[in-house]
Design a protein that fits this description.
This protein is of the alpha+beta class. It has one domain: Gcn5-related N-acetyltransferase (GNAT) (Aminopeptidase, 3-Layer(aba) Sandwich).
Length: about 160
């Protein structure tokens, strides 16, 4: 495996990131989301929606050999938009991005961070020290989702 470089996402990356997230979602979430949920999810990560999210959050991408292979964001104390390109799942990219965002949150003085996990990702987060808090039911484009709010305490630096 080649070296993973993590850098701040810029606006010219948005269409690549949108495509990466949509491809990942169609593969990993279609078994747990209804058709209505999938359509709402896909619009939530459209190019236009990502442009709006970049105003409110800091996003970073993982790059291997000049190819964007993953993305993660931090909005206040919430991890958002965390996806890995399908061909690169299980190769340590998710762990690297999660460590990066946890370190950034510590640097910003946060004592804990949260995320909303779909059912398919819970075991990944638990393996990396995240704890379940409660079931939540966010609504996107008028469609209700069932997710698990998870939290991780950060060590003060």
């Amino acid at each position: 495996m080649h070296k993973i470089v993590i850098r701040k996402l810029n606006h010219i990356d948005i269409s690549v990131i949108s495509a990466l997230i949509i491809e990942n979602a169609k593969h990993t979430l279609s078994s747990v989301y209804s058709d209505d949920q999938m359509q709402a999810f896909l619009s939530y990560y459209s190019v236009e929606a990502l442009q709006q999210k970049m105003i409110r959050a800091d996003f970073f991408c993982a790059i291997i050999d000049d190819e964007i292979v993953g993305v993660i964001g931090l909005e206040d104390d919430m991890v958002i938009g965390f996806y890995i390109k399908l061909d690169f799942l299980g190769k340590g990219i998710g762990k690297a991005l999660l460590n990066y965002i946890e370190n950034l949150a510590q640097y910003k003085g946060l004592i804990n961070i949260q995320l909303a996990s779909s059912p398919v990702s819970i075991s990944f987060y638990e393996k990396h020290g995240w704890l379940p808090v409660k079931a939540i039911y966010p609504t996107y484009s008028g469609v209700i989702f069932e997710e698990l709010l998870m939290q991780k305490e950060l060590i003060a630096i």
